[in-house]
């Protein structure tokens, strides 16, 4: 009889350990998704902070290109106001399009391409774009891991009780014109 109670106690301990591990694992995955989203958000903010400097630098050379400056400013404001994941993706696509057009305009001003401030800003922007792509990729990986965990056994048992719901992937809206019509920008000197 004593062995039976020891066996039951061991099974209970294993069951509780399994439950705690699963619960804590789901919490960790949920927090990882939030952390990765925060990284995307901070990189988008970094890019938004660079844009006024880039616009000011180009504006000095291309003052008559007022429409593109308004588009860039508007798309930056939309990006900063966006709250949901879908709104951020939409605003980011709009921003990419406006920045592409701004940089394409700079191609028409050879003196601008030689200005150190413009070159530094262009490098900063390129680095930021790479950081955004990496952050987006990490976020989507974390979402995949989290969504799999809450749909698989035993995660789905705990997820419902914990109020965990499937997370959204970060995707550019399908068919968005900014993605389809991104201008080619080449700052290499043509001979």
Number of domains: 1
How does the overall form come out from the CA principal axes?
rod-shaped
Helical residue percent band: over 70%
Instruction: Name the structural class.
Output: mainly alpha
How many β-strand runs? 0
What does this entry look like structurally?
The chain is an all-alpha fold. The chain has a single domain (30-179), classed as LemA-like domain (de novo design (two linked rop proteins)), CATH 1.20.1440.20. It is 79% helix and 0% strand. The chain has 7 helices and no strands. The protein has helices spanning 2-61, 66-81, 85-106, 110-113, 116-151, 155-162, 177-180. Helix 1 (2-61) packs antiparallel against helix 5 (116-151). The longest helix is centred in the first third of the chain and has 60 residues, at 2-61.
Topology:
Layout: H1 2-61, H2 66-81, H3 85-106, H4 110-113, H5 116-151, H6 155-162, H7 177-180
Relevant terms:
de novo design (two linked rop proteins); 79% helix; rod-shaped; mainly alpha; 7 helices; disordered C terminus; 191 residues
Would you summarize the structure shown here?
The protein has helices at 2-61, 66-81, 85-106, 110-113, 116-151, 155-162, 177-180.
């Amino acid at each position: 009889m004593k062995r039976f109670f020891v066996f039951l106690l061991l099974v209970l301990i294993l069951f509780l350990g399994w439950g705690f591990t699963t619960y804590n694992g789901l919490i960790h995955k949920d927090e990882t998704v939030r952390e990765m989203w925060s990284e995307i958000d901070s990189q988008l903010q970094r890019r938004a902070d660079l844009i006024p400097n880039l616009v000011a630098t180009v504006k000095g050379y291309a003052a008559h290109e007022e429409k593109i400056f308004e588009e860039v400013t508007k798309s930056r404001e939309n990006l900063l106001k966006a709250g949901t994941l879908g709104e951020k993706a939409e605003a980011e696509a709009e921003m990419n399009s406006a920045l592409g057009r701004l940089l394409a305009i700079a191609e028409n001003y050879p003196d601008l391409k030689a200005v150190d401030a413009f070159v530094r800003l262009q490098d900063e922007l390129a680095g930021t774009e790479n950081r955004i792509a990496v952050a987006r990729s990490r976020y989507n990986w974390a979402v995949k891991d989290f969504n799999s965990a809450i749909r698989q056994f035993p995660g789905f048992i705990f997820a419902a009780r914990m109020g965990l719901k499937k997370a959204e992937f970060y995707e550019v809206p399908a068919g968005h014109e900014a993605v389809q019509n991104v201008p080619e920008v080449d700052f290499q000197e043509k001979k």
